[in-house]
Structures are given as structure tokens and as C-alpha cells.
Design a protein that fits this description.
Elements lengths: L3 E5 L5 H14 L11 H8 L7 E6 L4 E9 L9 E8 L8 H15 L4 E7 L3 H9 L3 E12 L2 E11 L1
Parallel strand pairs: 4-5
Antiparallel strand pairs: 1-2, 2-3, 3-4, 5-7, 6-7
């Protein structure tokens, strides 16, 4: 595994995080948006929630290798023990164990909060993310077939869940 340090996410990281996200907007089907997003739009999409675990991974040179965060699955109290996952790695940093490291830290933080279930929603066109989640204990619990369209291609939203 590559030398990276996990640090609590801070507002100073937002611009670099948006840059990673926008790379996936432009070069993959990992996001649902078709055009790069502004900082304000990025913050809205991420729905950062104080008190929930959120980390950045920085390599030994200080470059942002990736980020991950949990947020409430729903504002409805019945779902207080469920969280939704978002995780993105910078170009060139996938397949090096960094995503697993971020996920483990998020899961530890979730357990401390009493969260029992983590949900990830993934585009059916994002095979790498589907493989990543399944290999780490997430189970497909359903999908919304053909609900999305991006760059002229229809896709399903796949619901993956991991019980903690």
C-alpha cells in the first residue's frame, strides 16, 4: 500500500476535493452529473454533516489522494442508524489500498456513532466502484432500473448496503 496519511476533512480541502470529483464528471460514469460542478454545487452534492466521519488521504508529498465521508441516510429519525457513503480517489491512486483505508476509518467512526448500516448508491455503469464495494462486504439490495441517463447512456442506480 502507498504511504498516505488520513486526516480529518477540512474546509481547506474542498477545492482539491471538487477537482477530484470533476475529473470523474469529465472522464467516467462515477458521478451522476454531466458537467463539472462549482464549489457551491459540490458542497451541496456532498451534503457534509458535522459530527459524521469525513477524511482526506494525502500522500507523502501532500497531494490529495482521495476523500471519503458519511452523511445521514435520511433526516427521518427512523433512519438514525443508517449512513450514506461517498468516496472518491484521485486519478492514479486507485488500486493501492487507499479506498480500503478510508472505508475502514469511516466504518470505525460509524460504529462510534451507533450507525449499524452503510448505504452506497452506485451507477450500474461504474463497474470499478461496484467491484470495490462488493469486495468489502457490501451487498446489492436493489436497483432502480434505467432511472438515469448520462451522456446518452441509460443506467441503473444500484443500492449497496453493509451491516456493521
Amino acid at each position: 500500500m502507498m504511504e498516505v496519511e488520513l486526516l480529518p476533512l477540512s474546509l481547506d480541502d474542498m477545492e482539491e476535493m471538487a477537482g477530484i470529483f470533476n475529473h470523474y464528471v469529465e472522464h467516467s460514469f462515477a458521478t451522476y452529473t454531466e458537467t463539472p460542478v462549482s464549489m457551491a454545487r459540490f458542497e451541496g452534492l456532498m451534503n457534509f454533516t458535522p459530527g459524521y466521519p469525513a477524511f482526506v488521504a494525502r500522500d507523502s508529498g501532500g497531494s490529495l489522494a482521495g476523500f471519503g465521508l458519511l452523511r445521514p441516510y435520511s433526516p427521518i429519525p427512523a433512519f438514525d442508524r443508517a449512513a450514506e457513503l461517498t468516496c472518491f480517489l484521485a486519478k492514479g491512486y486507485t488500486g493501492r489500498g487507499i479506498g480500503s483505508m478510508i472505508l475502514q476509518a469511516l466504518e470505525s467512526g460509524a460504529v462510534e456513532l451507533g450507525i449499524k448500516s452503510i448505504v452506497a448508491t452506485v451507477s450500474s455503469l461504474n463497474e470499478g466502484s461496484l467491484r470495490f464495494h462488493r469486495a468489502r462486504g457490501f451487498v446489492e439490495q436493489g436497483r432502480l432500473v434505467g432511472i438515469g441517463s448520462r451522456n446518452g447512456r441509460r443506467f441503473d442506480v444500484v443500492y449497496l448496503q453493509k451491516m456493521l
